Structure formats: C-alpha cells, structure tokens
User: What shape does this take?
Amino acid sequence: VRVDLLILCHRLCAQLKREGIETVTSAEIGEHLGVSAAKVRRDLCALGKLGTRGHGYRIGELERLLGDVLGKKRPWRVVLVGAGNLGTALLTHGGFRRRGFRFAAVFDCDPGKVGRKLGGLVVQDVSQVPTVLPALNAEIGVVAVPSTAASETARLLVQNGVWAILNMAPVILSLEGAAVINVDLAVELEKLCYHLTAAKTEKH
Amino acid sequence: VRVDLLILCHRLCAQLKREGIETVTSAEIGEHLGVSAAKVRRDLCALGKLGTRGHGYRIGELERLLGDVLGKKRPWRVVLVGAGNLGTALLTHGGFRRRGFRFAAVFDCDPGKVGRKLGGLVVQDVSQVPTVLPALNAEIGVVAVPSTAASETARLLVQNGVWAILNMAPVILSLEGAAVINVDLAVELEKLCYHLTAAKTEKH
DNA sequence: AACTGTGAAGACTTTCACAGCA
DNA sequence: TGCTGTGAAAGTCTTCACAGTT
Assistant: This one.
C-alpha cells in the first residue's frame, strides 16, 4: 500500500523535528520505517519534487507537504459508537487528539453506560444518533460494538452524515457511499499463527 | 495480501456450517468477503485441489483444510503486556477464545493494577516476566503498552520465549527472531482522512 | 449445466542502477 | 562527492476467459 508509508513518514518528520534535526535522506527514512530507500523515494517523488539532490529532504517542508496530502489542515471530527473497553481505549488515548482527531460524541445502547462521562464526553443513547449527529458534522465514525450490531450501526452513521467508517467488529461491512476500513484483531492474531505454522513446517 | 482471505474464508465456513449449509461456490465466498470469485479460486487452489467442478466447495472439507494451513489444530497461548483499556478489551473479548486463543498471563507495570483480577487472570508485575514466561510456553505476545515502552517490552517478550508479537503501540518495532504485526489505530484513522481529502479534491 | 482450476494478459509494485543536480 | 528522481527490468497480484470435470 502507499498511504501507510506517507503517514508513517509524516509522523517520523514530527518526531525528528522535535529532536531538532532539519534534514533527512531517503535511506534514513527507510531505516526508521523498515522499508527500502528506493521505495521511499518513489512514493515521495510521486507528490512532486521536494528533495534536494545531494542533501536529502528538508524536514519542515516534507512535513508540511505530507500534511496537505493527508488532510491534516484541520482537526477531523470523530464519533464513537460503543463505549466498551475498546471504545474507551480509543476515546481516552491521548495520541488521537495530538494527531488531529477530535471526538465529538459517544453513543452506546447499554442504559448502564448512557449518561456516564467518558473522556470528557457524556455517553448518549444510540437512539439519539439521528437527533444529534447531523448537527455535529462529523466526518468519521468508529464502530466498536459487538459484531451482531456492527452492520446496522455503520448504516445508521452513514445515513446521518458520516463519510468514513473505522470498523473494529469482526465482520465485513459492505456500505455504499462511505470509505470503510476494518481493523479485526482476531484476524491479525491469526496471521501470526499462520506465520508460526508456516515457519515450523518449512524447517522440514 | 493472501493470508487474510484464507482467514476470512475459514471464518465464513464456520458461520455457514452453523447455518446448516454444506456447499459453497467461489462466487458466493467472494460475495460475502467483498472480493472477486477469481481471486477466491486462485487462493484456494494454491492449497491444492479441493473443490468439485460443477458444485463448488464442500464446507466441512474446506474448513478442515484451512484450519490445518492456518495452524488451528491446537489453541495458541497468548500473553498480554499492558492492562489498560486496550489490553482489557482484548482480554475480555470472548471472540478470541472461540477462535482458538488462550490468554496465559497478563502483565502491567502499574502497581495499582498488579494483583487485580482481569478476565480470569491476575495481573502480574512486568518484572515477573523472566520468572513466569518461560514455563508458560506462550507463542504469541500482545504489546498494549504506551509507545515509549513498546520496543523494550517486545524485546523482553522475545527474550523469554515468545515467537510472535502483535504490537498495538504506534511505533515500528524492529526485532530479530520474531514475527511482528503492527496494528496502529491512528494510522487507520489517517488512512480514512486521506481517502476523504482525496475524494474531495478529486471532485475538482 | 454449473463451476473449478489455470494459462495468458494486464496492472500494479518493487528493485536496480545511474544520469544529473547541489 | 552525495543523494535525488526516474527510466528500465524484474517481480507480484489481479482479472479474463475457457478447457475440463462432475
């Protein structure tokens, strides 16, 4: 994939800038990110000429350009459905705010959770979504509900103005009119199992 | 990627079997999983001939074969480091046990968490890892600690017998001698941002 | 008739290697 | 000199299309 590299590169720029470094070569970027220097150059070059031959890339400039491409000009508004452990983890994880995401609302259908405060927001009943969401103009919805409810939840969000869905439930969402990314932790664990068994049977 | 499809296919088989269905075609699998029928056939065929022409795949057979390839013969032992919200979410999520994963231990370095019970396990201090881990023979380690501690934590796990790492912290781990998969939720959110901005600027 | 397995074509990605600029 | 930007080659993944089997 290509976007991943740009995102990691953008993050690396921020880190290097904090360390006071002003210039970086494709080889160094590759080293940090675990990819080849050629790949780094190809992907950066696709955004236009931005390095100086002989000296590498100027970090400030690179960061700014990557920020533009990745849509980092303004904070994105995110709504969360599902205030379980996973939802709470996302909400209270400071890293998102630092990276330009603002949680605008949290919903859950458990009456025991509705009304509680969580990461500075009051959990609202999921039935309030059609009332509350349109005014928030949130671009991104995070679905952190049980898999049985995921599909319905995603549809509800899209119907109420969300343009993109991050789905944490282990189901394939097929939605019209929204970008969807699935993060399925069980699948990731199973990938590791595959690697382990493949490595073992390879030995003989 | 290729393994993802096999994993999802395996999961789909289990689901269809529960529904009492005995046979499935590549087109149906593709429909459920959101990929083309040709791709399904290619990937399944790479495991050996297992469909019957004219009738599709027998689900029981397919599930068994995929299970073998993916290493589902026995439960895998998983240890978790980091008993925050994210760690707790993983630990208490019933889906993992059902998919063949068994959590063998939980560690954290926060004295306020050590000693508490979590998902049937007592949280142990992370300094106990070298004492406790070798006897557990755990294959997989999940790193759900803050990014500053992730690299060190992963190394500690690998030194004590873990073969594979699922890293939830937003850093690139470079480790010798272990398979690593990174799940970085901030990166996933940023991918969505990119899609959104790309779609917007594309309109004109 | 229905659907798999698979060559062949096409699309895309990665790597190599080096001309050209600072 | 040192490093970028980029053709060209090599490699990988996807799709097409159909022969072959049940």
Summary: Chain A touches chain B through 55 residues (CB under 8 Å). The radius of gyration of chain A is 20 Å. Chain A has a mean pLDDT of 95. Residues 2, 36, 38-39, 42, 52-55 of chain A lie near DNA strand C (CB under 10 Å from a C1').
